[in-house]
Each structure stands twice: as C-alpha cells, then as structure tokens.
C-alpha cells in the first residue's frame, strides 16, 4: 500500500495537469496526442463523475469551471436531425467535437478515410454522434454538477437540453421499447469492431445493448430524478425513479452470467448475453447495479490474475481465445478502469479490495504518468500501445486524471 506521502505526490502531479486540460470549450480527451483539444463527451463526463464523487482538496473550483464549460459545449451541439453520416439523431448529445485547435493531422487522416470532416476558414472540424452512452453520461454529470453547486441559474439555462436528453433515452435510444438502450456494436466505450467477437469468433447481430451504456442510463434516471425534484416536478421524478428500478432489474436479469461471476459486456439482438469474460463489470459496480452479495462476487472475479495486472485491469480475460494484449480493447490495459473499480468497491464497503485497485492507480501514475492504455504482458512488462507500429496512446488522458483525483482525494 502506498504511503500518504506518495499518494499526495501523485495527486499533485495530477492536479498540475488541470490547467493544461481546460480549454475554451471544456475538457478535451487529452492535452497531448491524437485527440489533443478534442472534446469527447464520454471522456469529460467520466472525468467529472469521478472527480465530483469526492470533495477534493481545494481544487474543486478549477474542476467545476471546466465541467461547466464542457456541459455547455455538448448542449450547443445537441442533435436536431437525422444524419446517417454523423449518426446524429434528434436530442442526442454529440460524442466527438473537433475544432480549430484540435489535432489537424488527425482530422486530415479521418477526412482521407471518408470521415465527415469539414473545412472552415482554413482549418478542419468534425462533430459526430458515434456513441450511445453520452446522453446518460451528460444527464448524470449535469445533474451532479447542479446539485453539488446549487447553481440553479445554470440548471434553468440548460433545462431544455436535459429534458430533450432524457427524452432521447426513452425514445431514440430505446430502439425496441424494452427500456434498454441499444445500438451498433461499436458505439459504446469499446468502440472497436472486434471487442464483442465471442469465443467462437462470432460477431453479434446489431442492435446490441451494452453494459456500460445501460449502467449510465440507470445513473441518469437516479440523478435526473433529483434534479426534476429540485424543479418541483415530483411526478417526473417518481417516474424516473421507477424507470431506474426496472432498468436495474433488467440489467441484473439479462446481463448476469452466473458461471462467470460477471456481467456480460453486452446482450445481442435476441437479448442473449455475449459470453466474454471482461472487466466491464466495473461499470454496474460503480453506479450501484448489483446487490451486495453479487458485488462481492464481481470484485472477487475482477482481482483474478487473468483480468488484473499490477498496472490495472485487462479489457478481456487472459483465458479468452481472442485475447491479445496488444490489440485495441481485446486484452490491453485501460488505466481508468482500476480507479472505477476502486470507487465501486468503496460504494459497497469493500475497503480491502479497493486498496488492491488503488495500488494499481498509484503505481501507474508514479511510473507511467497518465496514459489512456498500454500493452501489459504476462510478466507485467508494459509496452506503449501502437497502431501501425507508431505509439498513439494519449498521455495525459482526461478520464485517467479524473480517476487519480478520485482515488487520492481526502476521504
């Protein structure tokens, strides 16, 4: 276990990154690398939800300033129409927002590959809606921000955006009317084409419902209900709380795989769990989906060596036939996951288990900085994540910073 002095040193290193992370548009995915100054709703919302769980140690004003600006930026680009190129739908929050200060070489590459990049006044920009989790995440962070700060003026300024976003979860997000949020197999936090290929090499038929997307929809119901109550709309607050209970019941019923002691990362179009052992169970653990007994089983499974390394959690079990520590989201280590797992353990009072994940957070921060992901081999050697032989992982990455702020804040 790290000493208080080491933990404080790690924290100060993370805090030093904050001024460089805040742009005129809010928190970008990364201050450096291929996503420099690009605002990703998923990334800043994960950062914000992690950071705002704790009172922090005096750094809250700068954290809140960036969160507020980020929320406004997404709200300005909330979907108005159906656009198959960008995947925009009415009321949907954008995921990627690349502007003038974003990595122009990266945008040029996306444009060459047929992406919806446009040129404005001599520079490239792109806004896309390639994600199904962003509405639940945006609602959750907006609600938590307002309830924490008591900024009712800001609440009222973006109230119509919240109402529209809540409506998206009930209409556009829920394709077949079963209360779950469905979508393409690559529009969740694992946005690769292969992360849901099962042990027999089969890709599930779309639409799929993924674990993280629906976990955050549950959190949105809970926190948005509190915000509706602050406006005096008790009927809507009650409806959202009832929806949350049913969403939680469905996740526990449809995603749980008893033999694994884990939730499936997704269910397919036939509502059958995709039988892959992954670390995605950190998400329902974090937001409070399992009961205490099931939470203990999840954590006991996550700490097994096929999933947990000394640096953090693998995205796919070492025992999987499709495991590859160097492949994007099929076995490499993403460094926000250990912090989310630790926060989930803390929710359930599993303090000793939280220390296990915290040690991963501290070790990574001390020795590697704040990278988004790395390859970790069976001997716990760390290698930079590469594409076409070129290291491309962002460092510092915003949601990794959020995880460090969460795990080093005063209790």
Automatic annotation (TrEMBL):
InterPro entries reported for this sequence: 6-hairpin_glycosidase_sf, 6hp_glycosidase-like_sf, MGH1-like_GH
GO biological process terms on file: carbohydrate metabolic process
Pfam families for this protein: MGH1-like_GH (PF22422)
Mannosylglycerate hydrolase MGH1-like glycoside hydrolase domain residues: 144-363
Listed name of the protein: Mannosylglycerate hydrolase MGH1-like glycoside hydrolase domain-containing protein
Organism: Candidatus Curtissbacteria bacterium RIFCSPHIGHO2_01_FULL_40_12
């Amino acid at each position: 276990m790290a000493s208080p002095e080491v933990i404080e040193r790690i924290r100060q290193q993370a805090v030093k990154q904050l001024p460089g992370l805040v742009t005129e548009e809010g928190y970008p995915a990364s201050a450096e690398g291929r996503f420099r100054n690009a605002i990703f709703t998923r990334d800043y919302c994960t950062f914000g939800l992690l950071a705002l769980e704790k009172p922090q140690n005096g750094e809250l004003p700068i954290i809140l300033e960036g969160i507020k600006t980020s929320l406004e930026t997404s709200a300005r680009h909330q979907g108005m129409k159906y656009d198959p190129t960008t995947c925009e739908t009415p009321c949907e929050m954008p995921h990627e927002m690349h502007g003038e200060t974003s990595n122009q070489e990266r945008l040029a590459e996306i444009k060459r590959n047929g992406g919806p990049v446009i040129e404005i006044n001599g520079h490239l920009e792109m806004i896309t809606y390639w994600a199904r989790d962003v509405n639940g995440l945006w609602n959750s962070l907006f609600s938590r921000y307002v309830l924490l700060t008591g900024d009712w003026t800001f609440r009222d300024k973006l109230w119509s955006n919240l109402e529209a976003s809540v409506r998206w979860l009930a209409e556009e997000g829920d394709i077949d009317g079963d209360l779950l949020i469905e979508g393409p197999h690559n529009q969740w936090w694992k946005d690769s084409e292969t992360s849901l290929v099962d042990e027999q090499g089969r890709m599930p038929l779309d639409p799929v419902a993924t674990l993280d997307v629906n976990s955050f929809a549950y959190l949105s119901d809970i926190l948005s209900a509190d915000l509706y109550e602050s406006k005096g709309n008790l009927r809507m607050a009650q409806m959202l709380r009832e929806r949350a209970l049913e969403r939680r019941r469905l996740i526990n019923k449809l995603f749980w795989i008893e033999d694994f002691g884990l939730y499936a990362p997704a269910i397919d179009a036939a509502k059958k769990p995709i039988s892959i052992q992954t670390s995605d169970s950190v998400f329902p653990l974090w937001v409070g989906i399992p009961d205490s007994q099931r939470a203990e089983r999840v954590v006991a499974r996550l700490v097994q060596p096929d999933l947990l390394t000394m640096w953090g959690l693998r995205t796919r079990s070492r025992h999987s036939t499709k495991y590859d520590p160097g492949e994007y989201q099929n076995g490499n280590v993403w460094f926000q996951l250990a912090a989310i797992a630790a926060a989930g353990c803390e929710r359930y009072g599993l303090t000793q288990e939280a220390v296990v994940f915290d040690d991963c957070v501290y070790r990574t921060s001390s020795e590697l900085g704040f990278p988004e992901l790395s390859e970790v081999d069976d001997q716990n050697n760390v290698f930079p994540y590469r594409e076409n032989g070129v290291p491309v992982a962002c460092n510092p990455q915003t949601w990794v910073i959020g995880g460090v702020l969460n795990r080093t804040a005063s209790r």
